[in-house]
Amino acid sequence: xxxxxxxxxxxxxxxxxxxxxxxxxxxxxxxxxxxxxxxxxxxxxxxxxxxxxxxxxxxxxxxxxxxxxxxxxxxxxxxxxxxxxxxxxxxxxxxxxxxxxxxxxxxxxxxxxxxxxxxxxxxxxxxxxxxxxxxxxxxxxxxxxxxxxxxxxxxxxxxxxxxxxxxxxxxxxxxxxxxxxxxxxxxxxxxxxxxxxxxxxxxxxxxxxxxxxxxxxxxxxxxxxxxxxxxxxxxxxxxxxxxxxxxxxxxxxxxxxxxxxxxxxxxxxxxxxxxxxxxxxxx
Length: 283
Description:
The protein starts with 7 loop residues before the first helix and ends in a 9-residue tail after the last helix. The strands form 4 sheets. It has an 8-stranded mixed beta sheet. A two-stranded antiparallel sheet has the order 4-5. It has a two-stranded antiparallel sheet with strand order 8-11.
């Protein structure tokens, strides 16, 4: 941020981490400044929920979306993935559309929009009139990738209503005469559970009793980390907040880097991580 005084965290980062990764740390500083000091193609996965529009206050700090997008594209390894969880404010009956502009900008800088996922919070979660619209209960989870995702570990927890049933599959075959013939064959019985769809229903933890105004559900961060990375991979959250992504990365055997400009939230996340035992499979 312009005019900001360098903190002890900044000095430590500048002295020790230029050209290398500050692994397993929560860094207090402007995310663009911090990311500029990190080596290109060094991050496997980004899982983050940036401040969007004016729906929350974050200590009066501003941020540069275009700078963040450029840095994330540079830092991603080939096949790396960004999970970008955002929403839009409704002003005078009109949604801002900021989230869509951000998703399309990731395409403009050369990333793929691999999937548009939905976080279903399971209930009405925004303040506003429902006299002219249906109550909002979702957020977008844009999945951008640098080329084809290098990792996809699909979560299988969807109950299959056809479990155990044997069904027929078919394909069209062209005969020498030119006639088309459909050949069918039986396939093995359907499994009890199938791969989860791209709408994830995860209860919103809310803000009551929370020190951070937009707490990220741990299971949401964990499931994205499990889906798009492998143990030992490096997971970055440039809007680390209370450190949920970092906590779930460590819990699942990944390395983490968190960047947060608000010193109060940095302290919260560091305390959370200090209370968490290190998994046995983390080097």
